[in-house]
Write a structure and sequence with these properties.
The chain is α/β, with parallel strands linked by helices. Helices cover about 30% and strands about 20% of the residues. It has a domain of about 80 residues. The chain has four helices and five strands. A five-stranded parallel sheet has the order 1-2-3-4-5, covered by helices on one side. Helix 3 links the parallel strand 3 and strand 4.
């Protein structure tokens, strides 16, 4: 891959700052409690300048960063504008790896966005900016949404 990268005009490797270990392990934490330290200990020794992101803090010691996925109602986003101001400092850092509104009583994401949802998501996102010393990023989940709801 290095030769291809160089052929395409980039002589130096890209700097990688973050690596997430796992995905949505808060669903079943039993195996994450031993998988996280196995990967984290080996990788952090080899790559000390990379911040490793855990997908849960339920079954592991405090990681350098954690990935939150939020799909609540629009009212939740408005009510939790200051959510990240309550996190103990200085750790862990937070990546909001997925966020989008869902309306009350719905188990699915909205088929089409609403003005209320857009405002609520914007209010929540302002909270990320206000706490940028611990928030390392936020990923709006439906940015690449297929309107036919197919994967």
């Amino acid at each position: 891959m290095g030769a291809l990268r160089k052929h395409l005009g980039r002589s130096q490797p890209f700097e990688i700052k973050y690596i997430k270990i796992g995905n949505e392990d808060f669903v079943a934490t039993s195996s994450y409690s031993y998988r996280w330290p196995a990967f984290y200990n080996a990788l952090s020794r080899r790559y000390p300048n990379i911040t490793f992101i855990a997908t849960t803090t339920t079954s592991i010691p405090t990681p350098p960063a954690v990935d939150d996925h939020d799909y609540p109602s629009s009212q939740f986003f408005i009510d939790n504008f200051r959510r990240y101001e309550k996190i103990p400092r200085p750790k862990p850092k937070v990546l909001i790896g997925e966020f989008a509104t869902r309306e009350a009583g719905s188990s699915d994401s909205l088929f089409y966005p609403t003005m209320r949802g857009a405002i609520a998501e914007s209010v929540y996102r302002i909270g990320f900016e206000r706490n940028s010393y611990i928030i390392i990023g936020g990923c709006y989940a439906p940015v690449l949404q297929n309107v036919q709801s197919t994967q």
